[in-house]
Design a protein that fits this description.
Distance between the termini: 27 Å
CATH class of the largest domain: Alpha Beta
Shape: globular
Number of strands: 25
Bound molecules: ligand MGD, iron/sulfur cluster, molybdenum atom
Amino acid sequence: MLHKENNALSCEPPCQEGLTRRSFVAGAAAIGAAGALATSAAFDIVHPADAFADDNAPVEKRYSYCDMCNHVPKCGIVCHVKENRIVRVESRAKYPATPLCAKGIASLQELYDPERLLVPKLRTNAKGTASAWRDISWDEAYAVIAERLSAIKAQHGPDAVLFFCGDPKEPRGAMQRLATLFGSASYGSESSVCAAASWMCANLVFGQNSMGQDPGEATKSCLVWSLNAAWSQPNRFNGLMSAKERGTKFVVVDPRVTPMATGLADVHLQLRPGSDGALAAGFINQLIIQGLIDQEFVANWTVGFDELAAYVAQYTPQKVEEITWVPAARLIEAATLIGTNAPMTLVTSSKGGCHQTNVGNYQRAVFMIPALLGALDVAGGLSLGPGLPFDYAASTRGFQLEDVYESEGFQARRHDLAEFPVWAKFYKMMQTVHLPEYVAAGKIRAGVLLGANAMMWPNTPLYQKAINDMEFSVAIDYYERSWTHDYVDMLLPAAMCYERTAALALFGRKIFLRQPAVEPLGEAREDWRILLEIGCALGYRDECFNGDVDAALDALLATADIGVTLADLKAAPDGYDVPGQPPEERKYASGKLRKDGQPGFNTPTGKVELVSKTLADLGFEGLPVYEEPVHSPLRDNPADTAYPLVLNTGSRVPYYTHSKLRDLPWLNQFMPRPVVRLSPKDAASRGLATGDAVRVFNQQGSIEMEAEVTNMVMPGVVDIFHGWHQADVNLLTTRDFDPITGFPPFACGLCEVVKK
Ligand SMILES: Nc1nc2c(c(=O)[nH]1)N[C@H]1C(S)=C(S)[C@@H](COP(=O)(O)OP(=O)(O)OC[C@H]3O[C@@H](n4cnc5c(=O)[nH]c(N)nc54)[C@H](O)[C@@H]3O)O[C@H]1N2
Ligand SMILES: Nc1nc2c(c(=O)[nH]1)N[C@H]1C(S)=C(S)[C@@H](COP(=O)(O)OP(=O)(O)OC[C@H]3O[C@@H](n4cnc5c(=O)[nH]c(N)nc54)[C@H](O)[C@@H]3O)O[C@H]1N2
Ligand code: SF4
Ligand SMILES: [Mo]
């Protein structure tokens, strides 16, 4: 197993005995020149690179952007390059997302991490045990992939091959194109558990994907429902703080005392995780009772108001307090603050609020709030309507071959249709949470797994087994990770962000092209190139541009049909402004939101749906009804009473991204070991203090970690970050999926904590 124990790390570069700077630089240059001959062993001495750069070598500055948190868009970086090695990174001026956070600064340690995967590898022992590999050439890798995938396709059809991207967003366009070329309707991504629930709920309510919108100059109040941008999107936090300085009022809904709550909130609603549906119903009820609703908008542009009003009437502040633990007076205060400071805007989260068994209902209720207050598509509110034709991963539907995947019968072959009909209506990608079931049933037999991590799912071992049981799988990653790659047949080394081009960075109508700052180390190749070359090996040479990433990006831009070419982007290092009209307000009234040109919204009724027709037609409740989480302290379920603490997992920390970055000395020092955060009250009643070794367990599993006692967490709740292989919290999270979105309850399980 390649992975180091985190507590064995020091902040010092590894010992370089016997190696002078001169000999190292010469060796590195030779390796760079030899390119394909470089081996991973040769790079074990490189850590960190800036310790070895020749001080006298000329420095060249090259522009890039950081991908350490896989955000779209990313923070701008200036790389200081000496002899094909980056010796310094810093924030990039004239770039919309900046400055760098700790992870961005540590990106050099990731780039030159001696444990990076740098050579293609083919398994030589049985899957499911500690891996043994044989180094292979790219040509051999592609030949094996083409032979195995083609054979499985010939015998079981194209849908038996899963094309999957984990958290990395940049390769999505190339991956979906490859899947479609292969003819597989089994394309999926981490969106199965991230963000897509929120987009879908917005779409059900007002016919457009949304996660809300940050305050603009005209915004008077902002409802932040569960985002902790200070740690999950630091570049965005600056903008929110500026809005605060301009006088925007903030309500923050979060179970924890986050920097958003302390830095921004005029009112902080500290709710029990998973009880959001009751809080949202109570919030709407208050807006109605206090007469704060925009009557004109509601009368003309919504359906179902009377039913909604009748439903939420039961959610009095007192009842909401019993369910959510939010004091009644706070709820009233919060609703008044937002309802009397128009225009308001809403900010939701791709994660904190999505991971609940009730998300398909509760997030709809949250998106109804700006609609009820008339804050849709007005200055300072939530703008709607068509922007540039790119998706959030900077690809276009045209490039992904929309004509083919939308063609007759293609989507009807998807494996997830029966379980997740609402999801299937909105997304041309599988909801992949039932992967173990699809593999067990023989529906999926092979996988191209890019940046995939088995620990991202609830009940990890089931997904490890699913990957293990595939007849063939290939993973593409920066590292060998035993918890996932012990179950795959082949492992391919991916180039990191400073070594690659694709995809594009978009900020509204501004587009940035990244050009590689340095050549990839070893034999690593960029994700887009790998996917295009797999396509070539499978026989789609023309459609995959002979593996040429620049040609692919040019084609992508052509499908966007905005008159921009790759050459235009290359000539505009400070970003290319796509000419266009300034955004217009109230497009729903002028008919500019709908494809048919009629006034209204892109919903079946053409109105904002307070009762969803789509859901009602598919046999679901149309109203945003609240249901307790499947495992809840309020359910009085005898099987759960031994686990009195609410388990809130995955709240982001500033120094790690999911399962990544644990080995980087500059970051590892902040949280060297996995911790469970709990309140002083719960710690005292269990005789626990910070630093104690504890066991956290529930009906499903048990993990061991260190206690951290903190007022950040409310009594009755514990907080555990995900992605620690030595204490994987997804051994404790359950597979109780929300029936509308398919999302797992990462935020609202149950557990108990005891001293070891
Ligand atoms: N309990 C719990 N579970 C969760 C969550 C939670 O909050 N709680 N959050 C969920 C969410 S929102 C998400 S997004 C997922 C996280 O999704 P994951 O896919 O688990 O994310 P990572 O661990 O960052 O990355 C997966 C792998 O991709 C590799 N990698 C990173 N970038 C690249 C790249 O550009 N190219 C290639 N080829 N490889 C790359 C990394 O080395 C790593 O091995 O986890 C989900 N799981
Ligand atoms: N440093 C860092 N940054 C990241 C990532 C990372 O791993 N590390 N991951 C990236 C990804 S893929 C994602 S999806 C985003 C996520 O970005 P965020 O959504 O900001 O991430 P979280 O911190 O998980 O969740 C935000 C807040 O939700 C709260 N919360 C938890 N449970 C509930 C609940 O039941 N109801 C409500 N209302 N709030 C709840 C948590 O206390 C937390 O403070 O971050 C991205 N940025
Ligand atoms: S927030 Fe940090 S990790 Fe994310 S892109 Fe910016 S610098 Fe990189
Ligand atoms: Mo995510």
